[in-house]
Recover the amino acids of this structure.
């Protein structure tokens, strides 16, 4: 009500009640740039939210989101399609647009190969691929959350969606590269979020 909101990034929304209220507030305050990271499927393959929540996200959030950023297991779950390679991206992204998404960024970290390609597709026909060398590191915890947050940040700065995604992808790739030498505990560590400011 005071200074307004230029962009919002949404993560896990666990219940239909929370999802409906979130959508109501987005509409109330007229937020233009909503980035939805549909945190539904864990890396282990376990489902993290109830079926009713998934349906509520499709109904309430997808139409409001400038961009939805599912990983491969989430995209497969939402579309009912198997995604074996980047050749499957256009059909899966198209199916998500049919379900109400205005823009889709398919995150390819779960696919194998030396090169990682992520795929942007929008309801008005924009199609773009972002290619990066895969980095061998255990420190990839939170990369999806970081990417969607970075896209929201660049949208808030006024960049068009393809450029906001490119800048976010470059940032996350750099953060993974800078964080690969660190060891934090015994599991998967985080990326180096502040690498651009580190001496």
């Amino acid at each position: 009500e005071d200074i307004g909101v230029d962009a919002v990034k949404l993560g896990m929304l666990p219940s239909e009640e929370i999802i409906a209220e979130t959508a109501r507030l987005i509409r109330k305050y007229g937020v233009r740039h909503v980035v939805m990271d549909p945190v539904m499927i864990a890396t282990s393959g376990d489902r993290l939210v109830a079926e009713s929540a998934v349906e509520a996200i499709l109904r309430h959030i997808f139409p409001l989101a400038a961009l939805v950023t599912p990983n491969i297991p989430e995209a497969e779950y939402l579309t009912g399609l198997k995604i074996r390679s980047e050749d499957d991206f256009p059909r899966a992204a198209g199916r998500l647009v049919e379900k109400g998404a205005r823009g889709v960024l398919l995150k390819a970290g779960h696919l194998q190969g030396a090169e990682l390609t992520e795929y942007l597709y929008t309801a008005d026909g924009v199609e773009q691929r972002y290619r990066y060398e895969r980095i061998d590191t255990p420190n990839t915890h939170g990369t999806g959350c970081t990417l969607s947050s970075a896209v929201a940040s660049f949208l808030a700065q006024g960049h068009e969606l393809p450029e906001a995604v490119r800048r976010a992808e470059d940032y996350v790739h750099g953060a993974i590269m800078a964080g690969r030498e660190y060891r934090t505990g015994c599991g998967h560590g985080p990326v180096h979020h502040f690498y651009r400011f580190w001496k």
Remarks:
- The CA atoms of residues 132 and 173 lie 8 Å apart.
- The first strand starts at residue 7 and ends at 10.
